[in-house]
Amino acid sequence: MVRCASIPVLVRVVVERTAIVAPFGSECKGDEARACPTMIPRPDPVPGSHPGSEARVAEIQVRNRSSLCAYACGIAALLTGGPAMTADPAPDPLDDTAWVLESMPGRTLLAGVPVTLRFEEGRVSGSDGCNRYGAPYRTDGGFRLAGSMVTTQMACSAEAMAQAAAYADALRRARAARIDGERLVLADERAATLATFAAQPELLAGTSWRVTGYNNGRQAVVSPLSETELTIVFGADGRVNGSSGCNRYTGTYDTQRRGVQFGPLASTKKACVDPKGVMEQESAFLATLRTAARVRVEGDRLELRRADRAIAVVASAASEERAARAHVPGPGTVAVPAAGGAAVAVGTHGLRLPATFRGDLPCVDCEAVRHHLDLWPDQVFHLRRTWIGLDRTFDDVGQWRLDPARHVLVLQGGTEMPLQFEILGPDRLRLIDTIGHARASPGGNELASVGKLTPTDLTLNLGGELTYFADAARFTECLTGRSYPVALEGDFAALERAYLAAIKEPGAPLYVTFEGSIVDRPRMEGGGTERTVVVNRYINVWPEERCERARADASLSNTYWRIVRLGADPVSALHGRREPHVILRLMDGTASYSATVGCNSLAGGYAVDGPVIRFSPAATTRMACPAPLDDWERRLGEVLQSASRWKITANTLELADAQGRPLALLVAVYL
């Protein structure tokens, strides 16, 4: 773009058979006739002109109006003695373009593993065929990455990861980028080609999509309800239709370069009751669809964004192939051969895995304890126990190990004591006590499997490392080492704020704790479902913690617990004072506690029954405490009086009241 200094005259410049009338102070922007010089054909040839001049001027008029504007402005400055013309920096030719990897010299690209590259506002992003990545870039004097590349941490096949590593190396070595028609070429400092790309088609006409996430209008991108389907079908005639979960909708759409605009949307008028919230979902989805202004297509993924670049809708391609696969059991249900295939499925531990084991085991003060135990061959387990008649459910995750001498399966998770099951056969387990005796009960102590894995949803306190960038969050749970995508719903916004405030580099891993659920959600890319973490309630971030230190949960008893938070307010040691803490002791069958916030000492007893904890009234010294210690001490006393529930996640202890409302957060300190 060329901007002329403001001069209050018009200059008429004759070029061959065309006259230019340039208003000074105007701006030339591409082919915008209002801003560029007016082209006035002359009826008579200009003396001295040569044949073909009209064609050449016409070509300049279409392709390079800014040059004509600059020429006119320069002549104006000469004629009037006005200020010289100034030019804005040249626009970045890569900005707002998208590409798909076509070739890398010396490598044969994997079929069905698209690698994408997008340039937007000084950053590159895309998929390397395994993980998503992002980095800043510069184009002054060529092309190069201007900072470190951050990626998600998914594990893929060895071939896909090798290709991703080679691609990342090519990006880091690139020193030149050249667009040649519908091709992009990245080259090194010697001009040798590193990678070639084809332009990513972002045409919507004739495409169909299955929605995997939408903006609910409350600053959160949420997944569709599990029993509903949201779809978008873009017709070649400029019309759009699809399912909004209950009703069908139809309307019009219009596309420009990487842009889209939806017209009014009409829908059928059914009223649906199930699942709960389906009509609210429908209203929110149709409302956010109307806000879409920008289009982004990467491989099989579609993003519709608002004008402020916030995500409106995320969807995956709904091809005929995926539609056919929709009727095949997804990763949530894995068929395992029964007796005929037992030789293949049964491992050295004597179990047919992966599999789900179920059973109702005896209970002292309730009807039964219903067990749902999911076991995987990589020694990970998920367990849900429900106390029938008591409205109590306890979920746990962890790792199992085999005690070969006793032929016993040992589950070590977040509970105080490991659970032990005797292996009776490929599909049968029997609960035993800590010394190996079967628990006597007329109802039996066995769990049975039908040779199929059907994972249950879990809700529990989770601790692990979070990475987040480019609207993609991933959580690695410490006890099992499992990595999950994180749904951008629930209390994720609070976790996101704390994460961004604590990290030093974009996409850096950060240890976090929260109350969450592990559930099935539609894949963000591709068909089927995948296990996904939903943040129900944010707890805290721990910049100094790492999974390596948090592999095993701390013990409730005989542990020094430093107080981190009372209610929602942070607590820390004051200069010259003891740090706020609680010590829980269990010696010779006697449970006692001592506590302080840095002023008086509190002491008493406590009792634990499963997830329930009770503290006896505290005996305390009577010193006068300065602020804020006086307030902290009063609140600590209230916590001990009201505490009813406890949960340990790795090295953190949370105390809550009988309704589950959090009262205090503490962290184990190993002296």
* Cα-to-Cα separation, first versus last residue: 66 Å
CATH domain fold name of the largest domain: Lipocalin
Structural class: mainly beta
Total number of helices: 8
Mind telling me which CATH architecture of the largest domain this is?
Beta Barrel
Low-confidence stretches: 1-87, 319-345
The first-level CATH class name of the largest domain: Mainly Beta
Explain what this protein looks like in three dimensions:
- The chain is 14% helix and 42% strand.
- It has 671 residues and is mainly β.
- It has 6 domains: 2-87, no CATH class; 97-199, Beta Barrel (Lipocalin), CATH 2.40.128; 207-325, Lipocalin (Beta Barrel), CATH 2.40.128.270; 335-453, Lipocalin, CATH 2.40.128; 458-549, OB fold (Dihydrolipoamide Acetyltransferase, E2P) (Beta Barrel); 559-669, Beta Barrel (Lipocalin).
- Strands 16, 17, 18, 19, 20, 21, 22, 23, 24 and 25 form a 10-stranded antiparallel sheet that branches. Strands 41, 42, 43, 44, 45, 46, 47, 48, 49 and 50 form a 10-stranded antiparallel sheet that branches.
- The longest helix is centred in the first third of the chain and has 16 residues, at 65-80.
- The chain is globular, with a radius of gyration of 33 Å.
- Mean pLDDT is 77; it is low at 1-87 and 319-345.
Produce a short descriptive summary.
The chain has 671 residues and is mainly beta. Helices cover 14% and strands 42% of the residues.
